[in-house]
UniProtKB/TrEMBL annotation:
InterPro entries in alphabetical order: DprA (IPR003488), DrpA_SLOG (IPR057666)
Protein's name according to its UniProt entry: Predicted Rossmann fold nucleotide-binding protein DprA/Smf involved in DNA uptake
Lineage summary: Bacteria, Bacillati, Bacillota, Clostridia, Eubacteriales
One GO-annotated biological process of the protein: DNA-mediated transformation
PANTHER family for the chain: PROTEIN SMF
Amino acid sequence: MNISPDSQAIILLCSSLAISRKGEKDEDETIPFTLPEWNVIARKLSGSVLKSPGAFFHADPEQWQKYLGLSKKEVNRIAKLLSRSGQLAIELERLESLGIWVVTRADPLYPSRLKALLKQRAPLVLFGAGDPGLLEVEGVAVVGARDVDAEGVDFTNRLAQRCAEEGLIVISGGARGVDQIAQDSALAAGGKAVTVLADSLEARLRQRKVREAVLSGCLVLLSSYHPGAHFTVGSAMCRNKYIYALSRYAVVVSASFNKGGTWAGAAENLRYKWVPLFVRDGENIPEGNQRLIEKGGIPLKPQMLDDESGLRATLEFYGAKAFGYTRPDACEAVVGESLEKKDPDLQPAEEHDLFDIVWPYIEKELDTPKTEQELAEKLKVRRGQMQDWLKKAQELGKVHKMTRPVRYISPLQLKKSSQLSLFEGIN
């Protein structure tokens, strides 16, 4: 597994991956840095002559202290953690043999949406199995309670199937109930899924159906915790934000009022406004669903899943009203009418809002190099308008411009890596 010096330093300093499993005693100097602690060091690094984490390998402890203003205790802690590079190499080799890859915030393959939405709250290290390219595909988070009623089960199945039909990735937490139903339904319908785990990635990979889905390129498992970690309530609560941040839209199928991980995650998303939050609506919905709608969740009735405009268009239409338009209160519409006729007075608040809406459609065409004219014709817009959008996409790092002739392609296609493992040794 090829790991850059920057990533190697981050893994050694901020994860338990290199800690011996032979009962090594954790002392203050051997405890990895927490996310808040590392963010302080990272800011100091970026403003110093050292610049990046990899500099710890070629600068000496006196320089760390001088340029970063670290205490002697912090310097000793860094030195102790970096001394485990041999153990890290062994562990990385073991993980690679299991089909598990590792990325850090310093890697180009790190999910761009996590960085963009969570910023310094984005996890420093991620472990995964499957095609990392799926993490950049437009997806819908589907979340809900472990104990879900029959109507909720039916809604989840239909939602996941519609996602599969329209090429939307289903993103869930892999827990019993709504999460597992959404994942299984999407895969059964020929779709793809991303599962963000709060328990052991290694244990999950031992399940035959999971391995087959991962190897087929239909499923990605992702975790911010050590691949051998056990489930904790704290880790489940923490990973909720990653499920939301990886998605473009989120749908709450079933939630208890003011308790449980589903409620906490949805409330957090409403607070920080990461993505539009849709909530299953209807006659017999749980109290938690109704309260989330009252807090700002967008009602999603079962019949809206069958809107002739398609699921993606429905989510974009209502999501845009709630997130990027001047009339967020205008959410009533007649199901079954074309979206163009639902609210002719709706106008974008700013130009960048419109870009955010049309970009997924442009990005979908960039799996192969395309010219401005080809893209303009595909989306039925003026070439000048397409030029403006592509220019903005370049500024945001969302597109790669090729020359001779001038064409555009998704950066992901240039850096996409193949599946790292054949799962040798797993029964």
